[in-house]
Design a protein that fits this description.
homodimer, alpha/beta, Lyase, Ornithine Decarboxylase, Chain A, domain 1, TIM Barrel, 2 domains, 9-stranded mixed beta sheet, elongated
Chain lengths: 366, 366
Amino acid sequence: MIAERLQLFEPTLLLDKQRCLANIAAMAERAKRSNVIFRPHFKTHQSHEVGRWIRNTGVNKITVSSVKMAEYFANDGWNDITVAFPVNVHEKKRINALAEKITLNLLVVSPEPIAWLAREVKHSVSLFIEIDTGQHRTGLQHTDIAGIDALLAEISRYPHLQFKGFLSHGGHSYKITGDRREIHHTGISIIGQLRKLKEHYQHHYPDLILSPGDTPTCSILESFAGADEIRPGNFVFYDYGQFHIGSCSLDQIAVALAVPVVAENPDRHEVVVHGGAVHLSKDSMLYHGKTIYGKVVQLTDQGWSTAETNMYVKYVSQEHGVIHCENPETVRTGDWLGILPVHSCLTADVMKAYTTLEGERIDMMR
Amino acid sequence: MIAERLQLFEPTLLLDKQRCLANIAAMAERAKRSNVIFRPHFKTHQSHEVGRWIRNTGVNKITVSSVKMAEYFANDGWNDITVAFPVNVHEKKRINALAEKITLNLLVVSPEPIAWLAREVKHSVSLFIEIDTGQHRTGLQHTDIAGIDALLAEISRYPHLQFKGFLSHGGHSYKITGDRREIHHTGISIIGQLRKLKEHYQHHYPDLILSPGDTPTCSILESFAGADEIRPGNFVFYDYGQFHIGSCSLDQIAVALAVPVVAENPDRHEVVVHGGAVHLSKDSMLYHGKTIYGKVVQLTDQGWSTAETNMYVKYVSQEHGVIHCENPETVRTGDWLGILPVHSCLTADVMKAYTTLEGERIDMMR
């Protein structure tokens, strides 16, 4: 079994490199088929090594979620990076250092940060305007032409700021579960809203880029026609949440947390593992009406099986994971189990390293 | 304002050292008054530096939640450490290395790990038996004399294993909100259950130790009479969750996440900050019937104010924190806000460093 083969002794985030490479190749192929730029989001893996696997498929533009993360990937040779998070007007030093070195694309949702960038950043910077296509987190409505015009007017005052296009994160697609038609419909709606802006603004900005890109719609739409680039991130690993949404199959999930069983409570149909909030994060999902924190799989010699186990993570405290176990007599203290995370981005973030099925350790941003 | 004074530029976990020292002194004093051993849990702060502040009050015994954490603190000179987590039978190397060097106390809940320790660990180790006093996570019931006898019989077979006593984590006290009498009652019940075991076993084990110790009951009980040691952890910082439970006052909370505002959505009564799940964790609590991920406070020149702001963290995604804001016109992009975490242990764990109000950076275990 893999835990013995790799001599695991503590909670370990296993990464199936072959699945990850297949996920990358599949999404790159989808982007190519639709003739859109593939600018994957690197916030999921946060790793130089996984980034290199992606670079090997020909990708040379990426997305990140913070300037710090842009810095981390610029240090590994990436030189065209979009920070898909509204400008923080306190990061003058980092933004200047990056803008001097690479093609830096930032996100704006209001005029003040534009004036601040113009004043404080001495190098050329490109700007995306964020459009709220339904998530209602940040961004302007596509119907808010006055608001968008105000941002464009502000940008156009400064020669070292370039308007690059409209960006949207369709995070509302994460709320759809198991209804691929509805996800498809959401994806079409996101692109449709952005298209309206292109029709309105392309006369003045013929090169403007429309950039949607959440993993569910990017995994399900058969064509991205109308968009110019896509920015999915989670697809490199997927997770049990994405499986539940309908974005991936179980055997596309490329990470599993290997955990040792430390206690048995058969009366309560529970076993306890070393694998808690500091290993999985505390992200949860609804599963057959219950809140769960991960889905349990059996580890195999090569990795893990996707066969149903009747086990799931019922709750987590800091280090404990309590597993509901339909047949508790089948699990013993000292056994190893696998947990498919509800949300691989956050699990990766707390674990800060991967171990491939071949036993290679892969580091992440710290 | 503190963000300018300390030249903050990104989400930063502020630590009020004076409050932290006062929290430590108060709990040490409570333990002293009841004449019990004070063995604080270090899983909350995970920091050599904060550990040294505690050592300065005369503490020389500590609790941790993993063998890895025991290793980290042993490297800073701690030589009597209880790992309050059931033995993981795959950590042979780490346990041996520690048991050779320090007084190592481990936790058992079933016979197999005892036999494993006897076989695989070459140095003397002390064992606590975990008692489930109501949390129903791990441990034996105090009424399960047959089960406890079986563990004691197993321990007694091996000369280098010593039975040390009964340990319990009263995690069920975290489910009580705002009812100090009920927390008090829970604390009395926990000690009462452990006392029954002492009465039963002290003839054979005259030195056995009863070790309860969750922060709510340790903060509220006026006496720990009947117990021999306490192991609270969260009290060093407390948090908004503990305030809600009734364990602390607002001005005992010693950590706040400083975050910059990056977007305003006054129509929805929201502002968005750089401060998401990777900064706060995704722990939540119910607050006036709503799930919240943190309570917003105003930063001041010296730290933060505890005055009511009518703002709370409504939800978090990976990097975004969406703040509900009763008076959104009072908050502007570029402003800094403070967030009192729902659960400081998990916030500290994801942030991996503190900045004191004097601007000193304090590192944590990695």
